[in-house]
């Protein structure tokens, strides 16, 4: 059984993330979406628990996708779960350079761990969680940026 891990902070999950999850779910027997802490993001918009809930609602259509929280190293999570593949979405060369460095670090921690890069689909390559948070803060329509479950949850929410 092929088990892949798709990690991220997902603050919030976007349609770009969903595209990567959908495509990964077609390539691997099981995809674990691993909600992690991004130390570079000092003020997350959503708690990890809320992100977990929103992602679970968003991926319910994929029977081979599960979502979990993790506080430690990604390589340790993958080993714990029996995964041999990390899935990383890349939008541009900046993403690729950063993710290549991380792939080498993860391979150094766990030599059996491989990283698969999925290029962003053209319609999502300009998306980011940062951009989605800005649209949320300024009350912009969200349906073109985030999954329907997330947009519905946020529609009437006033505080951020």
Describe the structure.
With 160 residues, the protein is of the alpha/beta class. The chain is built from 6 helices and 5 strands. Strands 3-2-1-4-5 form a 5-stranded parallel sheet, with helices on both faces. Strand 1 (3-8), helix 1 (15-27) and strand 2 (30-35) form a beta-alpha-beta unit. Helix 2 (48-58) crosses helix 6 (148-154). The protein is globular, with a radius of gyration of 15 Å.
SSE blueprint and pairings:
Elements lengths: L2 E6 L6 H13 L2 E6 L12 H11 L6 E5 L4 H8 L3 E6 L2 H17 L4 E6 L9 H9 L10 H7 L6
Parallel strand pairs: 1-2, 1-4, 2-3, 4-5
Mean pLDDT, to the nearest integer, reads 91
Fraction of helical residues: 40-55%
Secondary structure tally, helices = 6
- Strand line-up in the sheet with most strands: 3-2-1-4-5
Q: Which outline best applies? A: globular
Q: Give the biggest sheet.
A: 5 strands, parallel
How do the SSEs run, as a string of H and E?
A: EHEHEHEHEHH
> What gyration radius follows from the Cα positions, in whole Å?
15 Å
Distance between the termini: 41 Å
What is the chains' assembly state?
A: single chain
- The structure class reads alpha/beta
Low-confidence stretches: none
- Count of DSSP strands: 5
In terms of DSSP E residues, the strand content is 15-25%
């Amino acid at each position: 059984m092929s088990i892949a891990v798709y990690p991220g902070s997902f603050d919030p999950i976007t349609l770009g993330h969903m595209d990567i999850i959908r495509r990964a779910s077609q390539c691997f027997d099981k995809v674990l979406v691993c909600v992690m802490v991004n130390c570079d993001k000092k003020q997350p918009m959503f708690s990890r628990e809320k992100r977990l809930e929103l992602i679970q609602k968003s991926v319910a259509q994929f029977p081979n996708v599960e979502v979990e929280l993790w506080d430690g190293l990604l390589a340790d999570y993958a080993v714990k779960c029996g995964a041999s593949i990390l899935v990383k979405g890349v939008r541009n060369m900046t993403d690729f350079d950063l993710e290549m460095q991380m792939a080498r670090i993860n391979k150094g921690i766990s030599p059996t761990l491989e990283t698969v890069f999925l290029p962003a689909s053209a319609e999502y390559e300009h998306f980011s969680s940062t951009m989605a948070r800005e649209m949320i803060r300024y009350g912009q329509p969200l349906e073109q940026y985030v999954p329907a479950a997330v947009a519905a949850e946020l529609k009437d929410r006033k505080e951020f």
